[in-house]
Amino acid sequence: MDFSRRNALLATVGASLAGLAPGAQAQAPSTSSSAGSAPVGAAVLSPSRLAPRPPMGWNSWNSFAGTITEAQALETAAIMREKLLPAGYDIFTVDIQWYEPEASSYTYNANPVPALDAHARLVPAPNRFPSARGGKGFAPLAARIHAMGMRFGIHVMRGISRQAVKLNLPILGTSVRARDIADTSSICSWNPDMYGVDMTKPGAQEYYDSVFRLYASWGVDFIKMDDMSRPYDAHEPEIEAAARAIARCGRPMVLSLSPGETPVLRGDHVRRHAQMWRISDDFWDEWPQLEAQFTRLENWTPFRSEGSWPDPDMLPLGRLALGERNSRFTPDEQRTLMSLWSITRSPLIMGGDLRHLDDATLALLVNPEVLAVNQASRDNRPHFIEDGVRVWSAASADGASRYLAVFNMGKDPREIAVPLATVGAGAKAMVRDLWERRDLGPVQGRLVTRLAPHASALYRLA
């Protein structure tokens, strides 16, 4: 089954991450404010400080579609705290349609009746999130996530609820109503929940300001905002509006734009308004999709920097798709996925159902030497060696070593020789296999490795 949104219609990094620069961590969420409310006078962080390293966390989409409940969220968060938080995965995100009382699968209801407040803003469906009753929203759940030492994220759709427009609800702090700012011609091609907002209309920015102030009052730390990056130019005013609203809301929030493919030509604009942005449509566990991400990540190399992270999407590992199946990626392909996301410093957002987390998948996610590449390398760049082979290198945080990732893209086993000088490693190097966590000894002139089909290797060259 194809679960693409188009067709279906994020600070604690474990001390085990060798080589992380002291003081580089993002500020951990405060748990002292009541119900996760935005701290009074909270400083607004610069975009680079909002996400100084690639965000790491878990998101409910690959496992639950839009159906996750509060009980399931808390069960999953407890496992995440135990299994993944020590390795640095600290953002727990509730994905799409938490406001939809009848969400049941990867297919959206054609005529949804979402939960709304009196000012046209979506709120958690109380039948699925009981602690939200009485106008509390996500504040109680966010407070519990914060108490676990993690940050809380939510998925939101671009625009204003069609139901709010139907009811013509008032916009907080203005004299206008939903119909005054809605652009009913601007709709999402795969989801029926929202209309776009006409940012030329009085009250439009005030609407977005009110939405993000609400999220701040709940204690939200991370926003995955959907139906934004495609078509990019058409949605540019709302991208800017969301970034402006976050800057005004009084609480630091990371903004992640979805889905892609974000146009590379808009790279300068997107990195000034968001900390993450999708470079593809939804990514699932099929080799052709993984193969395609190599070229996209190469193309986005000029725009990868502190606080700016091109996002090839979540990690479809472990149990997926409402429990229907395990990842279709072979063990070699799973390691290739993690090697690619690490050497390209892509956000690491686990998508699999943590309630069924097996030892092999956990080992992929928490290898400290691999995560150090993702979290603390620099000068990440691709190299051309030969057809059917992909090679990336990067510098270690201290500059004393080079990281080298080698990928066999073909259907047959292959011996690959990488000249050390090509990847900036000098004439001789001591080699360490990061996945196996063992030293391989010295090489001179070139490093030769034999890889199975779709397999990879990740080395540290000292």
UniProtKB/TrEMBL annotation:
**InterPro entries in the record, alphabetically?**
Aldolase_TIM, GH, Glyco_hydro_27, Glyco_hydro_b, Melibiase_C, TAT_signal
Q: Which reactions appear under catalytic activity for this entry?
A: Hydrolysis of terminal, non-reducing alpha-D-galactose residues in alpha-D-galactosides, including galactose oligosaccharides, galactomannans and galactolipids
For this protein, the Enzyme Commission number is 3.2.1.22
Where is the secretion signal located?
A: 1-26
Q: Which domain of life is it from?
A: Bacteria
Q: Which GO terms describe its biological process?
A: carbohydrate metabolic process
| Annotated Alpha galactosidase C-terminal domain residues | 387-461
Q: Which GO terms describe its molecular function?
A: alpha-galactosidase activity
Identify the keywords attached in UniProt to this record, alphabetized: Disulfide bond, Glycosidase, Hydrolase, Signal
Q: CDD domains given for it?
A: GH27 (cd14792)
By sequence similarity, the record places it as follows: Belongs to the glycosyl hydrolase 27 family.
Q: What is this protein called?
A: Alpha-galactosidase
